[in-house]
């Protein structure tokens, strides 16, 4: 019935009765792999036009946030040689 | 197609992590292991190096890995005298309206079955984490009467009772050994219902 071996993927062992840490690790791995997001998206059907809009929005947001991050790291650099040396 | 690739990449990354873990555990030294790790995907390398460095910092005597013991390989880990494959399983089905908890043997025979409804909650109160916690506590109590201590947990679905059910099991006295996520992810199978407009 189940086509895959059980208890191999998406499994986290619990260390020293620390169930909370194991659950947090599991959710972190799942979000990194994009499974939680997929499950939330597939709860209701997403029409192809809405899907295209969402993809373009995510692309634009990704470009904007990376550029803004680069700008902020550039501006917040403090250890530079003095440009006005000697004045 | 894009989503298929995502799921493929995720499965490949988890498999790569496990391969890297098995390679590391097979006794190769750290400098020898890094040469092998360069051939494996980068996320596995980052996770493995972080895991090995934190383990070296914490305790060198404990070699704990978050990965479960593979069914083909022998591992010395035993819980209550049983191997990992023989431990009973707690299935937690966390839907948006309710939470079901069923304890079964490793073969599949059902021992204990509780849900928010059997605990006396009705309608909207069933879809709360508190109800899931009470269901977990009662399931753990019934399981302790039958003599079950060590247990693996399998979660299905994302709902309000996902975490609080496991919390209830721990509060009730069961010893959770591992947590598995078995949420059904369709590779674009059945068409779900139409989008809600509220």
From TrEMBL, chain A:
GO cellular component: ribonucleoprotein complex; ribosome
Keyword Magnesium among UniProt keywords: no
Database matches in InterPro entries: Ribosomal_bS21 (IPR001911), Ribosomal_bS21_sf (IPR038380)
Ribonucleoprotein listed as a keyword: yes
Keywords assigned by UniProt, alphabetized: Ribonucleoprotein, Ribosomal protein
NCBIfam families with a match to the protein in the record: S21p
Family: Belongs to the bacterial ribosomal protein bS21 family.
Protein name as catalogued: Mitochondrial ribosomal protein S21
Automatic annotation (TrEMBL), chain B:
Keywords on record: Mitochondrion, Ribonucleoprotein, Ribosomal protein, Transit peptide
GO cellular component: mitochondrial inner membrane; mitochondrial small ribosomal subunit
InterPro entries in UniProt: Ribosomal_uS11, Ribosomal_uS11_CS, Ribosomal_uS11_sf
Compartment list: Mitochondrion
Family statement drawn from the similarity comment of this UniProt entry: Belongs to the universal ribosomal protein uS11 family.
Name listed for the protein in its UniProt record: Small ribosomal subunit protein uS11m
Lineage: Eukaryota, Metazoa, Chordata, Craniata, Vertebrata
């Amino acid at each position: 019935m189940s086509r895959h071996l059980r208890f191999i993927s998406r499994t986290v062992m619990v260390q020293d009765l620390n169930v909370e840490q194991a659950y947090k690790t599991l959710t972190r791995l799942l979000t990194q792999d994009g499974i939680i997001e997929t499950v939330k998206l597939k709860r209701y059907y997403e029409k192809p036009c809405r899907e295209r809009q969402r993809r373009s929005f995510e692309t634009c947001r990704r470009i904007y946030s990376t550029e803004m991050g680069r700008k902020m790291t550039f501006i917040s650099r403090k250890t530079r040689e003095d440009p006005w040396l000697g004045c | 197609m894009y989503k298929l690739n995502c799921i493929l990449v995720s499965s490949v990354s988890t498999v790569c992590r496990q391969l890297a873990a098995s390679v590391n555990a097979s006794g190769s030294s750290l400098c020898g292991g890094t040469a092998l790790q360069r051939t494996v995907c980068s996320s596995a390398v980052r996770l493995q190096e972080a895991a090995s460095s934190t383990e070296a910092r914490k305790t060198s005597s404990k070699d704990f890995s978050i990965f479960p013991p593979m069914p083909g390989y022998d591992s010395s880990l035993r819980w209550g005298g049983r191997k990992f494959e023989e431990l009973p399983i707690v299935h937690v089905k966390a839907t948006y309206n309710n939470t079901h908890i069923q304890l079964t043997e490793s073969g599949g025979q059902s021992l204990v079955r509780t849900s928010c409804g059997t605990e006396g909650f009705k309608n909207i109160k069933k879809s709360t984490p508190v109800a899931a916690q009470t269901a977990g506590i009662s399931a753990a109590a019934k399981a302790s009467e039958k003599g079950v201590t060590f247990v693996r947990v399998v979660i299905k679905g994302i709902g309000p009772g996902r975490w609080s059910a496991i919390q209830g099991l721990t509060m009730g006295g069961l010893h959770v050994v591992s947590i598995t996520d078995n949420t059904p992810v369709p590779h674009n199978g059945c068409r779900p219902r139409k989008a809600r407009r509220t």
